[in-house]
Write a structure and sequence with these properties.
single chain, 391 residues, alpha/beta, Aspartate Aminotransferase, domain 2, Aspartate Aminotransferase, domain 1, 2 domains, three-stranded antiparallel beta sheet, 10 helices, globular
C-alpha cells in the first residue's frame, strides 16, 4: 500500500478554529499587555475610558447607525442573546429560526425556559435555511445571521418587513465584521469579539435599536431577571452599560486584546477590508472544494454559504457509504493527523452537526494559509483512506 507524501508548503499560522479564532496577523502578547490596565479597577477613569473607546470604535467600524446603543455585556455572545430574550420576549408572538445548533439553543430556551405562549420554531436541516417568507411581521423573530455550526447564512435581510411590528433579535457573532449587516432591519444584534476580530473570549457585545430600547422601557417581563440580565432600572434603560460601565467586572486584558484587534482593523482599511479578507479566504477554500472530488460544501445553495465558518462534508463513495459513527471516525483520524503535523488545529465539525470539517475563514486568517492548508487536507484524506484499506 502506497501512502501519500507530505506536502512541502505548510500554513504559517495553523489556527483555523471557529472560536476562539486566529489572532490578527502580527499579534503579540507584548503589544496587548502594553495596552492593558492590569491590576486596576475597571471603574477607574482610564480603564473606563478604554471601555468606552472600544464601544465607540466598534460602532464606527461596523457602521452602526446613530441612535443605536452599543454595550459590553457578560458571557460572550450567549450572554448577550439571553439578555435580549429574557428581557424582551413575551410582549408579542415569537418566531425562532433554526438551522444549526445555536438557533436550536435559543428555541429551547424560548419554549422550555421562557415558556412563551405563542412561539413558532421554523426549522431546516444543517446546510439549508428555513422558509424565511413564513416569518410573521407582527411577531418578534430570533435568528442567527450566520450559522456558525452549519456554514449557512441568510443572504440578506430582504425577508424582514420594513414596516414590521415585531422586533428582530439577531445573533451575528460569526457575521459581524465579515458580512454586511442591514442595520435598518435589525433591532438587537449580538456578537462576541473572539470571532472575526480574533479577540479573547468571555465578553459579548449588545447593540440595540431605538425600537429595542422602547421595548425595554415599556415592557415588564413576566419573569424574574438575574442581575446580569437587567438592562433597565425604574423603567429606563441603564445608560451606563452603553458608556463603559459594565454590569460585572470585565477582563481588562481581554478588553486590551480587543482594543488591539480594532486598531488592526482600522489600520488595514476598516470594514470593507475586513470583509474582503474573509471573502478572499472563502474563495481560496471554495475554489479548492470545487476541484476536490472527495469533499463538498455542506451548503448546496451558493448564496447561502458562509464566508467565515465553512462546513464541509466528505462525499467520496467509500466514506459516504460508512454509517455516522464510521464517518465521524474517519474525520477524527484526518483531524488528528493534521494536528500531529502541526498544520491545522480544531477543524473538526461541530459535535451536533453532520460529520465533516469546519474551517474558519474570517478576517484574521491569511489566504495563503488557506491555500497551503488545502494541500494538507488532500494529504490527510488520502492517508486515512490508505490506512483503512491496509488495515
Amino acid at each position: 500500500m502506497t501512502f501519500p507524501s507530505t506536502p512541502e508548503l505548510r500554513p504559517r499560522r495553523p489556527e483555523f478554529s471557529s472560536g476562539p479564532c486566529a489572532k490578527r496577523p502580527g499579534w503579540s502578547a507584548e503589544t496587548v499587555a502594553a495596552r492593558a490596565f492590569l491590576g486596576r479597577s475597571h471603574r477607574a477613569a482610564a480603564p473606563k475610558a478604554q471601555l468606552k473607546s472600544v464601544i465607540d470604535r466598534t460602532a464606527r467600524l461596523l457602521g452602526v447607525p446613530a441612535g443605536y446603543r452599543v454595550g459590553i455585556v457578560p458571557a460572550s455572545d450567549t450572554g448577550a442573546v439571553e439578555m435580549a430574550m429574557w428581557s424582551m420576549l413575551g410582549a408579542r408572538p415569537v418566531d425562532i429560526l433554526v438551522w444549526e445548533s445555536f438557533g436550536a439553543g435559543w428555541a429551547t430556551d424560548a419554549v422550555k425556559q421562557l415558556k412563551l405562549a405563542d412561539c413558532r420554531v421554523i426549522e431546516a436541516p444543517y446546510g439549508a435555511l428555513p422558509d424565511l417568507t413564513t416569518v410573521r411581521p407582527e411577531a418578534d423573530v430570533v435568528f442567527t445571521w450566520n450559522g456558525t455550526t452549519s456554514g449557512a447564512r441568510v443572504p440578506d435581510a430582504g425577508w424582514i418587513a420594513a414596516d414590521r411590528e415585531g422586533l428582530t433579535i439577531c445573533d451575528a457573532t460569526s457575521a459581524a465584521f465579515a458580512q454586511p449587516l442591514d442595520w435598518g432591519k435589525l433591532d438587537v444584534v449580538t456578537f462576541s469579539w473572539q470571532k472575526v476580530m480574533g479577540g479573547e473570549g468571555a465578553h459579548g457585545v449588545l447593540v440595540l435599536s431605538p425600537r429595542a430600547v422602547e421595548r425595554l422601557e415599556s415592557f415588564v417581563p413576566p419573569r424574574p431577571l438575574p442581575k446580569i440580565f437587567r438592562l433597565t432600572k425604574g423603567g429606563k434603560l441603564i445608560d451606563g452599560i452603553f458608556a463603559g460601565e459594565t454590569i460585572n467586572t470585565p477582563s481588562m486584558l481581554a478588553v486590551a486584546d480587543y482594543d488591539d484587534a480594532l486598531a488592526w482593523g482600522e489600520g488595514i482599511g476598516g470594514l470593507p477590508a475586513l470583509m474582503a479578507r474573509a471573502d478572499a479566504n472563502f474563495a481560496a477554500l471554495q475554489g479548492w472544494v470545487d476541484r476536490a472530488p472527495w469533499v463538498e460544501n455542506l451548503v448546496a445553495e451558493a448564496a447561502h454559504r458562509s464566508n467565515t465558518s465553512v462546513c464541509l462534508r466528505l462525499v467520496d463513495p467509500a466514506v459516504a457509504a460508512l454509517d455516522d459513527a464510521g464517518q465521524r471516525a474517519f474525520v477524527k483520524a484526518m483531524v488528528s493527523a493534521l494536528e500531529r503535523e502541526g498544520v491545522a488545529f480544531d477543524i473538526g465539525g461541530y459535535r451536533d452537526a453532520p460529520p465533516g470539517l469546519r474551517i474558519w475563514c474570517g478576517a484574521t486568517v491569511d489566504a495563503a494559509d488557506i491555500e497551503a492548508l488545502t494541500t494538507w487536507l488532500d494529504w490527510a484524506f488520502e492517508t486515512v483512506k490508505a490506512q483503512r484499506a491496509a488495515a
